[in-house]
Write a structure and sequence with these properties.
Blueprint (H helix, E strand, L loop, with lengths): L3 H14 L6 H26 L16 H5 L5 H14 L8 H6 L10 H11 L8 H11 L15 H11 L7 E3 L6 H13 L11 H9 L1 E5 L2 H12 L7 E4 L13 E6 L24 H11 L1 E12 L1 H4 L3 H12 L3 E6 L13 E7 H6 L2 E6 L19 H16 L12 E6 H4 L9 H9 L8 E3 H4 E5 L12 E4 L6 E3 L4 E9 L15 E9 L3 E6 L7 H10 L1 H5 L20 E3 L3 H30 L3 H19 L18
Parallel strand pairs: 1-2, 1-4, 2-3, 4-5, 6-8, 12-15
Antiparallel strand pairs: 5-7, 6-7, 8-9, 10-17, 11-16, 12-13, 14-15, 14-16
Helix pairs in contact: 1-2, 1-6, 4-6, 7-11, 8-9, 8-16, 12-14, 22-23
């Protein structure tokens, strides 16, 4: 557990550097290099106390010892020169292990201010290497400043999500663990801690034999394309007890040197974004052909698992529905070849404040997925933190419940019995693989397949497909570039704009095809109803009723507005740009009572809303005047309108036809 004093010292180091080194990544690198420098000197001092000799700062490198830097007779520029020279030459030091030489590779001091350096080194001097977990926790806190997005769409995975994935995958002491895009090694360290905890009686890992402990450390491996990330991973693992961490600089997508290496467990959150023009591997060893990095990474993970391997992989939502050939081929591989056991939907704010993206965790289990005829889908809405940029802790986390559900599903597969959710507060459901495989594109968005189970309509009212009762037309006018004019321009926002032309003429229900809440979150603010000539934004579609003798367009508008969260929002998808296709609306079912009953719903709604507005206006007028006559009129008007509202009490309302008996 990170103590307050250690946290304060790390924050102080960053505060000292920020004026000269504004980039958080560079700050982390400078603190990392200085800490390892200091810890090497601490280990030399410990060796001397035990009767040994110094090895890190010996021979030609003795002049760089930490005590020399902190000597009171050293001037500021002398310290600057000595420290800068030392970190530049340290990777050539024959007295330090290869791990530390890698850490100092290409190290340099990016500023020349002696006072900043002296203040910084003074703060570093307060840290001492003591072989404790405390230093590992401190370094993980330091790495938390690296949460920002990199050029390749890299996001630091939150610690609680890492630990959740490791708990679900449950790596064992005899299994090899790999992260082929390891970043700062968060997954690998969490797996290490998990296995130690499994084999603990009094002290972490005390039930492991020395041979088992050595094999475990050797079996935990990571790759990363960035030398800076490799350096940070090496330090992170060293400070968590790995004397010889196996992290290598390696381009997983384009290199072949390690292609034949496999693992029993893969844990990863690979970069989502692809370079301009796509990824172009110089070989043909991928089984799925694509230029998208998220597709190639996932294909790599699947192909590099052992025959009974397991994996937990974070992917963007596009993996589930994009209709490019590589995506479709990959989805069929997940289902047909016995890989996908479960799919977990994460809240859109998991990676805030750096990004709002819709992501999923794929749970791969080669042994159990081959036995299961269904895939479990779990939708986490609360991960224990707010979905705002500040990500404050909140109660009601569903992380633990989700882990329990997956464990129960696993046991049901082992027992060869049907799994049932048992009314858990987190939404979970199993869908047969045969149903997921239906259709040309093999969409695996669970909520699309589960929609009929979420929306339960009245059994005594006929249901009709929107595609059977309406013509669906996509918008034709750009939202931002349409010149203003005399016609309405219907856009996804609350208020309409104007246009110098019209696209359609009629009575239309206008539905947004893009989320109103920005990246990562599906939401619809308003469905517009328009009558007459109007222009329609390209981010909208319009429903025109085919036969108004059968369907009142205003009834359809009222019903869809009231049920948009249940019927329309689940159709939206996307990791960042959350959208839906107008074609998806065709299969949405709508209850269509008699035309007279529809008219009654529209009339009661009109009377109710208009009367409410009139009462509000009358009361506002009364409050604004001291004139007795006006007050008397407004009082009588309020009474009359309330009497009018009472006449609609027995009339049908849209609530009478809502699914599940609740307003959306």
């Amino acid at each position: 557990m990170l103590d307050a004093d250690t946290k304060r010292r790390i924050d102080t180091c960053r505060d000292i550097l920020v004026g000269k080194v504004p980039d958080p990544k560079s700050q982390v690198e400078q603190i990392t290099i200085a800490l390892i420098y200091k810890f090497m000197d601490d280990m030399d001092a410990e060796a001397e106390e035990l009767g040994g000799a110094r090895s890190f700062f010996a021979g030609n490198y003795a002049k760089y010892g930490w005590a020399k830097l902190m000597a009171p007779n050293m001037g500021g520029f002398d310290v600057l020169a000595l420290y800068s020279e030392a970190i530049g030459k340290m990777n050539e030091n024959p007295g330090i292990p290869a791990l530390f030489r890698d850490i100092f590779k290409n190290a340099y001091l990016p500023y020349r201010d002696p006072e900043t350096l002296r203040s910084f080194l003074k703060e570093i001097d307060s840290f001492t290497y003591d072989h404790s977990e405390r230093l590992g926790d401190a370094f993980e806190y330091l790495l938390s400043v690296l949460g920002s997005q990199g050029d390749a769409g890299q996001f630091r995975t939150p610690r609680h999500i890492i630990d959740f994935m490791v708990e679900v995958i449950d790596p064992k002491k005899n299994e090899s663990v790999l992260d082929p895009a390891c970043g700062t090694a968060g997954f690998l360290i969490s797996a290490w801690k998990h296995i130690l905890k499994q084999n603990t009686k009094e002290r972490p890992g005390d039930q492991l034999t020395p041979e088992e402990r050595a094999n475990l450390a050797a079996n935990i491996r990571g790759y990363d394309i960035s030398p800076d990330m490799v350096r940070l991973s090496l330090v992170n693992m060293y400070l968590h007890g790995f004397t010889d961490p196996h992290i290598v600089e390696y381009d997983t997508l384009t290199s072949e040197e390690r292609w034949n290496e496999t693992a029993d467990v893969i844990l990863a959150n690979p970069p989502f974004m692809s370079p301009k023009g796509g990824v172009k591997p110089p070989h043909k060893r991928f089984s799925v052909q694509s230029k998208r990095s998220e597709v190639l990474f996932l294909d790599y993970f699947l192909d590099h698992l052992s025959s009974n391997g397991k994996a937990g992989i974070i992917v963007p939502e596009g993996i589930h529905f994009v209709e490019q050939s590589g995506h479709v081929q990959l989805r069929r591989k997940l289902l047909e070849d016995g890989f996908l056991l479960a799919d977990i939907t994460l809240p859109h704010g998991v990676f805030k404040p750096y990004a709002s993206v819709k992501t999923h965790i794929l749970i791969v289990d080669r042994k159990l997925a081959r036995q299961a005829d269904s895939v479990l889908f779990v939708e986490i809405e609360n991960d224990g933190f707010t979905q705002t940029d500040t990500r404050e802790p909140v109660s009601g986390s569903q992380i633990g419940e989700a882990a329990d559900l997956i464990s129960q599903f696993r046991q049901a597969v082992v027992d060869r019995r049907e799994w049932k959710s048992g009314g858990a507060p987190v939404r979970a459901y199993a869908i047969r693989k045969s149903d997921l495989l239906l259709g040309r594109a093999t969409h695996i968005l669970g909520r699309w397949h589960d929609l009929p189970n979420r929306v339960i309509h009245r059994s005594d009212v006929p249901l009709m497909r929107i595609g059977d009762i309406c013509e669906i037309r996509d918008g034709l006018s750009p939202n931002m570039a349409t010149p203003p004019g005399d016609f309405a321009l219907v856009v996804p926002a609350e208020e309409k704009k104007t246009s110098d032309h019209w696209d359609f003429d009629g009575r239309a229900i206008c539905i947004p095809l893009v989320s109103s809440s920005g990246h990562g979150k599906a939401d619809i603010k308003r469905l517009h109803f328009h009558e007459g000539k109007f222009a329609l934004a390209t981010t909208m579609c319009a429903l025109f009723v085919n036969d108004e003798k059968v369907v009142n367009p205003r009834y359809l508008h009222l019903f869809l507005s009231a049920t948009s969260n249940e019927l329309l929002v689940p159709l939206m998808c996307g990791a960042t740009n959350v959208t839906m296709s107008s074609d998806q609306l065709r299969d949405v079912l709508v209850p269509i009572p008699s035309r007279s009953k529809q008219d009654e719903v529209v009339e009661s709604h009109f009377i109710g809303t208009t009367a409410s507005e009139m009462i509000f206006a009358a009361k506002a007028l009364r409050a604004a005047t001291a004139n007795y006559a006006i007050r008397k009129i407004t009082d009588q008007l309020t009474l009359d309108i309330e009497s009018l509202m009472a006449t609609v009490d027995g009339m049908a309302t849209v609530e009478d036809f809502l699914p599940n008996g609740s307003v959306g």
